[in-house]
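Hey, can you fold this one?
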Amino acid sequence: MPIHIAITRRVRPGREAEFQEALREFFQTSFAHGGVLGATMIVPPPGSDSREFGILRTFADEKERDAFYASPIFKAWEEKCAPLTESGSWTQRPLHGLEAWFRSPHNPPPKWKMAVATFFGVFPLAMILNLTLGPAIREWPFVLRNAVFNAAVVALLSWGVMPIVTRLLHGWLQPQSRTKDHNL
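Sure. Predicted structure:
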């Protein structure tokens, strides 16, 4: 199961262009690590005072993520970017479930496309659960039955269905990022 990681770094004043170019080069090198499936750079909005850059990186699984962060490629990047970034400004957190469905906060798809993609996940899942789980919990009290049913829908959407739906519809959801993710 792919894993998505969000990383932020605050760049030293006046070093933004240098950091952005170094990050582009690092993206190219990082794809040599077989477990890296994608990477997206998030730059501060034009005209803002922010110097915080974001990176969304996708790995094949946790093992590949750990191997990447222990690799010589990543260690060399850390050394190269240390003088460009403020010390202690580096953050990393995994994206799970719903937040990873549409993992492009810099240029998210239109809400109507996210709604259509979600419908494509919810509709068949709800039908399947109504045929399988529904009969097993039919006699339960109304509130408990609905709580269990909806918890199953949310859990299965978050960790099973939506990652597949968004992968299948990626070209439609993010047509402009088809080449961008791999060409940075």
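The beta strands are 3-10, 36-42, 52-59, 91-95. Let me know if you want another pass with a different chain boundary.
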